[in-house]
Amino acid sequence: MDESRATGVSLQELNRAGLEERPRAAQNDVSANASDSDIMQQSLLADSQVPDGGEAWVVISGCAVVTWWFIGTSYCWGILQAALVKEGVSSSSTLAFVGSLATACISFLGVLNARVIRKLGTRYSAMAGIFFLGLGEVLSGFSAMSIGGVIRDCGCCDGLCFMVVSVTPAQYFRAKRGIANGIVYAAGGLGGAVISFVMNALLDRVGVQWTFRIIGFATWGTGLPAAYLIKQRVPIPPSAVVDWRLFRDIRFVLLFAMGAIATFPLLVPPFFLPLFTASLGMSSGTGAGVVAAFNFSSALGRLLCGLCSDFVGPLNTLFISLLLSALSMLIIWPISTSLGPLIVFVIVNGMANGGFFSTMPTVVGNTFGSARVSVVMGMVVTGWAGGYLLGAPIAGFILNAAGGENNGITSYRPAIFYAGAMTIVAALIGLSIRLKTDKHLLKKL
């Protein structure tokens, strides 16, 4: 089974759990033979049985803590990367690949994670994901001075955690689904902000190896109880096929291409900001503070862009997010030779970065219907694998070719321009999707 089919099937079979209370025939109609009007009608039926509050907020709190750890630690990899480069473990490009590998597993292991969740349910799948996430960190504490050991223990269960928190809110929320998802994913940004300071303090006091171990123990101590709170409302039904007809829709083709390109630069700022600040002569504490500001801005951007989607439309919000991200990298970051302009870049880029993730599900649901949002998101997310895996390492290779991480801001500019150029291309594709949907730019879409 190819990766596009794998991830599409994995997300579809999970999210469709929220449709279990509908008649079985209605569920089966979401297929390659259903018309667009049928799918849009079924989308309304799919949203009719959710509680929209009450105990659901307890489940959301559990999802938020899980997201705190698996997104927060991923976005703080740049701090550990800088420490490992300083220790001479490997080059920045190789270590950026290690950090990207765990995130890329969200796409690569999609079908396997779906099978696990269908077998175990969301609660025990979340607990398994957190357990192995913490285990990878603890084991890295014993192998941190070996690049092979770090790769082995990098944590391939991010995808299991991602799948659980992605499908669970849809089982509990309809009218408040946007804010529920915003809270869940904003927790990842807040987690990254806090964890960055904790990591930097631990690196100064106990070194790289014990930093890995302590983060792993903390992941277990808080993540496992939170994962226990994540119970599924209805059983997860068998899977269905990917809707290959979507590739006949130019809007889907453009959306797929936009996501595939946009993910290449997304991890470049959080992974390389600590090295960038060090090249300017700033302390590791300043680097950690910059990463914390980026993660906090990302959390704020996820919430604000969710609200903006309700006022100006998700397609408009997505385009604005990508445009701001591109302009911040092409204009502000290259001239950030002091802390002031660097903080401006971090705030703007962090908010735009977070907005991409929080807006994409709304774009998919509004454009293609919520009854097949899992299919479309699955296919789109599969296209992100290349960017997740190779985007930051490519920036690392460009950095090394330009003189290395210790050669001042000049050596960073080619990598910065690479990231900015990729983002501006994605923004232009996003604008094309907007114009294909409706040519009136002031219309809410």
TrEMBL record:
- Gene Ontology, cellular component aspect: membrane
Keyword Transmembrane among record annotations: yes
Q: Where are the transmembrane segments?
A: 56-80, 92-112, 182-203, 209-230, 250-273, 285-305, 317-336, 342-364, 376-403, 415-435
Q: Where is it localised?
A: Membrane
Specify the superkingdom. Eukaryota
Q: Which GO terms describe its molecular function?
A: transmembrane transporter activity
The alphabetical list of record keywords is:
Membrane, Transmembrane, Transmembrane helix
Q: Does the keyword Transmembrane apply?
A: yes
Query: Which residue ranges are recorded for the region named Disordered?
Result: 16-35
Query: InterPro entries of this UniProt entry?
Result: MFS, MFS_dom, MFS_trans_sf, Proton-linked_MCT
What residue stretches are annotated with the Major facilitator superfamily (MFS) profile domain?
251-445
Q: How does it sit in the membrane?
A: Multi-pass membrane protein
Coarsely, its chief localization is membrane
Query: So what family is this one in?
Result: Belongs to the major facilitator superfamily. Monocarboxylate porter (TC 2.A.1.13) family.
Write down what this protein is called.
Answer: Major facilitator superfamily (MFS) profile domain-containing protein
